[in-house]
């Protein structure tokens, strides 16, 4: 459990640093991630196979969780598509001044760190 907490703390610290990067750096990071997915596809498929050995092939979730070279390539392509999108952080969604002079601004900010545990 301490390892999970440490990983979450590391992710939280990384998220703080990610807020400060510009669009070009963000795009490079995402392209690197996509390349890393493709480069590690054999390892990913092997680990996925070990996980799926614990589940009967008749389970409705089996096919959904099954990773293949094509599926990993599609993931990498999707990451590259995200890299091409404009960076929404800092975008002003709404801005107004109230009658009392208070200026309000609704701005896109990062979500932060989300942890998910699969059992």
Walkthrough of the structure:
The protein has 119 residues and is mainly alpha-helical. It has helices at 2-18, 23-39, 41-52, 62-65, 69-84; strands at 92-97, 103-107. The protein is elongated, with a radius of gyration of 20 Å. 1% of the residues are buried.
What is the strand and helix layout of this fold?
Layout lengths: L1 H17 L4 H17 L1 H12 L9 H4 L3 H16 L7 E6 L5 E5 L12
Antiparallel strand pairs: 1-2
Distinctive features:
single chain; 119 residues; mainly alpha; two-stranded antiparallel sheet; elongated
| Secondary structure: number of strands | 2
Computed CA radius of gyration, to the nearest angstrom:
20 Å
Poorly predicted residue ranges:
none
Question: Average pLDDT across residues?
Answer: 90
**Can you write the helix and strand succession as a string?**
HHHHHEE
Helix content: 55-70%
Q: Gap between N and C termini, in Å?
A: 14 Å
Physical arrangement of strands within the biggest beta sheet: 1-2
The total count of helices amounts to 5
Overall geometric form: elongated
Largest sheet properties: 2 strands, antiparallel
Brief write-up:
The chain has 119 residues and is mostly helical. The chain has helices spanning 2-18, 23-39, 41-52, 62-65, 69-84, and strands spanning 92-97, 103-107.
């Amino acid at each position: 459990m301490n390892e999970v907490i440490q990983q979450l703390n590391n992710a939280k610290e990384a998220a703080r640093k990610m807020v400060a990067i510009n669009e070009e750096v963000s795009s490079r990071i995402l392209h690197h991630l996509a390349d890393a997915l493709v480069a590690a596809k054999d390892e990913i498929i092997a680990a996925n196979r070990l996980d799926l050995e614990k589940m009967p092939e008749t389970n409705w979730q089996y096919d959904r969780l099954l990773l293949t070279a094509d599926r990993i390539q599609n993931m990498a392509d999707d990451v590259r598509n995200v890299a091409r999108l404009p960076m929404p952080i800092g975008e002003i969604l709404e801005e107004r001044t109230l009658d009392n002079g208070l200026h309000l601004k609704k701005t896109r900010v990062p979500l932060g760190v989300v942890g998910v545990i699969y059992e």
